[in-house]
Amino acid sequence: MLKVKKLKDNATVLDLMLNECYIGEGKEEFIVLNNNVKIKTGEKRKGFIPVRIKKIVPPNKVEIEVVKEQFTVVSEPEQKIRLFLKSDIIRKLEPQIKKAVNLIRNAARNGRLIILRHHADCDGYAGALALEEILISIIEKKNKKIWQSYKRMPMKAPFYEYGDALKDLSYFKEEISFGKKPLLIIVDNGCGEEDLLALKKVKLYDVDIVVIDHHVFAKEINKVVDVHLNPRVAGGEGDITSGMLSYEIAAQIGNPNPIYPALSGVADKSRNEFLEPYMRLAHKDREFLEKLAKCVDFEAYNLRFMESNLIYDFFNEKQKRTMDLILSEVEKRTDERKIIIKKFLKHEKLKKGTLYCLELDKTVPIREYPSPGKTVGIAHKMNKGPRITLGFSKDMITFRIDGVPFSIENALKALKKKIPYGNINGGGHNYAGTIKFIPGVGEEVLSSLKKIIKS
Amino acid sequence: MLKVKKLKDNATVLDLMLNECYIGEGKEEFIVLNNNVKIKTGEKRKGFIPVRIKKIVPPNKVEIEVVKEQFTVVSEPEQKIRLFLKSDIIRKLEPQIKKAVNLIRNAARNGRLIILRHHADCDGYAGALALEEILISIIEKKNKKIWQSYKRMPMKAPFYEYGDALKDLSYFKEEISFGKKPLLIIVDNGCGEEDLLALKKVKLYDVDIVVIDHHVFAKEINKVVDVHLNPRVAGGEGDITSGMLSYEIAAQIGNPNPIYPALSGVADKSRNEFLEPYMRLAHKDREFLEKLAKCVDFEAYNLRFMESNLIYDFFNEKQKRTMDLILSEVEKRTDERKIIIKKFLKHEKLKKGTLYCLELDKTVPIREYPSPGKTVGIAHKMNKGPRITLGFSKDMITFRIDGVPFSIENALKALKKKIPYGNINGGGHNYAGTIKFIPGVGEEVLSSLKKIIKS
Amino acid sequence: MLKVKKLKDNATVLDLMLNECYIGEGKEEFIVLNNNVKIKTGEKRKGFIPVRIKKIVPPNKVEIEVVKEQFTVVSEPEQKIRLFLKSDIIRKLEPQIKKAVNLIRNAARNGRLIILRHHADCDGYAGALALEEILISIIEKKNKKIWQSYKRMPMKAPFYEYGDALKDLSYFKEEISFGKKPLLIIVDNGCGEEDLLALKKVKLYDVDIVVIDHHVFAKEINKVVDVHLNPRVAGGEGDITSGMLSYEIAAQIGNPNPIYPALSGVADKSRNEFLEPYMRLAHKDREFLEKLAKCVDFEAYNLRFMESNLIYDFFNEKQKRTMDLILSEVEKRTDERKIIIKKFLKHEKLKKGTLYCLELDKTVPIREYPSPGKTVGIAHKMNKGPRITLGFSKDMITFRIDGVPFSIENALKALKKKIPYGNINGGGHNYAGTIKFIPGVGEEVLSSLKKIIKS
């Protein structure tokens, strides 16, 4: 017997599934599925009527056919979220995860155009690939050509640039002109001050937006996007990664490769409390994951803005061969970089620990891997104990910190106050981040930052 | 009764309209429309014969069918140009406008491939969009897919680069191999020394070229292109803008949005004599147009080389919402830039007025809006009275001038003479322009320029 | 009577030609063409059976039909190589040339995807176009759309970058997923240390690789690629150019324009022994070829990464007009550059000859033709006698040498040893090359290099 669902009270047109059957009630010329979904049919009907959804044109046009078969009404099961990670923080995020799951699943099932933007680093890729795996499996089942319904685009910058929004809207506009509502997903970028303009621009065109990020966020973000999923909203820190959050979403919808959350946790230095459960899930140890993270990072650097499925060969039966090739290259380059660092890294004693400084413009070849940021990371790992490692160029400082108290937010605030004419901004975490400024204040910023560190 | 036209004496195959009827005269195996257009039919006919044009393959192949219906001969009306702007300068430009109208209209109607290149600033966009609106309306009427017949490409550089010509020719070559003659239109660029090589390259392939510009032009240009429309040819200055000229052309063919000429006039500081009639036409005041110009300029900066119809949302029912979003962003960034300028702008007294100097490499963040040039504009507006504002970097000086006599052409001449080994070039207007040079002569150029200004 | 071939003993599935007939022997359920090619048919046959090849799916699936016609067996003629250049070195390279010919011809005939990568200079273009001409003629005969089977991509860098490999693999992967084996040809790049990573990456996907180069090669290269054709392998030097080698290959398969080897020889300064035979073949004198080389070099500079057939207009009936236009431009720019050089070039006496030095950052406009390297070449030609001309910038030295003993390999070795923290690398020839380093050691490298030169 045909099963027809009762649409939930708060559901909207966007929650309808194509070709599914729902029970409606005839009222004048409408068939009413709930208070939000009333379908004009032109015929006056009474009583309960089963209908099949033939076409959905958001925001509110629905085409149906009345079902003639015998039917039984089933209540749509309350959607349940089963999070893998057991943690207070992630439990608090359940409502956002649920909403993200619904938006993403419905968009894919209904063939809406989805653009998935992600930061081009290891965490960004981990999150994006977890989602991509389940998106592609849904779209392929619908016999749709992938490229008609889905695009993934890595972002080199640590934020969603206005120019990115213009590109995405160029894809979205055709879809919108057909009356369809596209979906934008942003992974490991998207929640900060610098993202707001681009997001607002996209929102002008009524695109659904899901941001999955773990960086410091702008308060306004929650008003701009449909879902902002971020451990910091629930009192957490950056070490519940974008890869972990994306995996939790993807795992509600399909079966993504379980390696992604552990990989991202290793790359972004998650504490053991979060990392270990995911490592057990992945059946991989830290050493292996660290090697893999180096490879993915190198590949991401070189893929730049390419949407390429080559990256999957680090996760399938080709894994060993691709890793062997890339790992030895990364290690060779790291060793070469260490020789440079040994020669040029300067140090001075702090009250507690040591401050290491590297002049990036003089020591890091441009447009070569490892990047200046990675180079500072290498320099930092070459030393031990409480320490700060600063790399500075004419308009940028990037740092790594261990065992020395430091707040990037406070440092930025103090620098902005002291040098208001310096166009100072930046971001990151307390243990690793970046400060940008105009070259005219380079020396002033460096000496002020040193003072902040020493105080 | 069928109306058939008499083809004008100086008309060529390119002036024929597809599916239109013309009267010809049978002579031996030809039907002769005029001295330029003689169609071989293989049959000997005599007397007047009405024909319908079935196919045109430039340079001179025409396929016809003889019309059997009753007909009456009408003389093709003398094409009339009704210019909106009443001004001696623009009246003198009527011949060029007429020729541009004919070339553009015929190319669009006959489905020839058209590439529209334009400077990626407010004036460039204004002119290009005025033309694009009427081009697209013609192409759509012919049921052609737009992208088969038309491409618009913004140019960041202030001239048509040789590399641009190579790209355009790559599109043109397929068309040319089918025996069709494409059309290149260049708006707000294209008339200077630096454009000549690229234009000559395109002309090697016998492409029609229309240049609509208002910058200082190279004398040779008139020999290279088919139409060079420029107020300076008629003794005018740069303040009859590319947007105004393009609008006058477009308005002969269709109904472009009347806001474009006023917008460009505000952006490029046209005198009231030219600006006010267009403002009345647009029913918009200067304050609104200045805000709109800021928005279009910001969008143009971020669109870079994209051919996007997003720009139209500043001119349609979305206007208010797009302007609100972008204007507040532009103003925020302008305010931030002002703080930097206040700190770093230096000044010295001139005999008449003041000279302000800003070291751009130290004060303007790279690849961020506002650009160095815009920053100098902001600095200039922050002061009053007779003044020159110079922004200099290691290989470039950009300036704004008010109330101080200055000739960019004379300054360039003097600098080139004094520093012949400096690779000095540049351009613009007497109130705003740019001088480029090699870093090795930076100080020499700056001190020489100051001397010129002070003298 | 139908001619059927006997497949050679060492031939594999990849050597089979579609629609050709071969003689096989029935053994159980197989028809055996040779020890490598055994086709399962499902029927038990005995004796000699003629078959026609209907489909080839590498690595080893072959579909056949048994031929019913009368037939005669012909032995497949031993493939003969007739090299145009008579020289011991090139004779020693015959095995590699033969293998390259087979790989390239079979790939084209069997419709496998071919990517042709080449250095974007005159030699690189000469070699690539010689091969492209014969590739396109084969593919067109098969009624294939060119772009489905073939892509040519110029490389600006002097090596095959890892990012290039990722792009190429994105094209290759679809082909590979259909079970086909693509072919990568690299001309005038590809044999050095810096190429290895990218080549190994491509080889992970079992792509056939042919490298045609004449630069100093890494020993490992022979193990990585299928063919490494390089005069240095046979004790030659760089003056048997990539254009000459590519021409010799192409001429075994079809009829490429005979101008390419002479053109490349002039561009890369081949000795008369090699150059003159090719000049006679081309019926062109040195003066003409030098002019043409300048034009191709300018066009290559501006085409950048474009795959454009515009370049052929320097070799067909448009040649005179394209050369006239470009040559006068190149000469104008060279004259302008000479004025700068005259002012800024410094010189000091050597024991034998003179050392000329040019500070590139101060004297060469960025992103303008001539490039820094070309500028040093111009400076070098402005002087006579034994001399070294060095152009240096903050992270690079480029040099030209005449009549002064110098070994780039020894110089690099000595610099690396003396300044191990300088990230020093480079390459080229003993008469022209480049040394790169980090800015922090710029002065140290320059003074050490001068010492090496003076010693």
- Look up the CATH topology of the largest domain in chain A: inorganic pyrophosphatase (n-terminal core)
Overall pLDDT level of chain A:
93
Radius of gyration of chain A, in Å, reads 25 Å
Tally of alpha and pi helices of chain A: 16
> What is the highest CATH level, the class of the largest domain in chain A?
Alpha Beta
Cα(first) to Cα(last) distance of chain A is 75 Å
Sheet having the most strands of chain A: 6 strands, mixed
Output the structural class of chain A.
alpha/beta
The parts of chain A where pLDDT drops under 50 for at least 5 residues are none
Most extensive interface: pair and counts? Answer: A-B, 20 and 27 residues
Assembly annotation: homotrimer
- What fraction of residues of chain A sit in β-strands? 15-25%
Measured as a percent range, the helix fraction of chain A is 40-55%
How many strand segments of chain A? 18
Strand order in the largest sheet of chain A: 13-14-15-16-18-17
Please state the overall shape of chain A, judged from the principal axes of the Cα atoms.
Answer: elongated
CATH architecture of the largest domain in chain A: Alpha-Beta Complex
Number of domains of chain A: 3
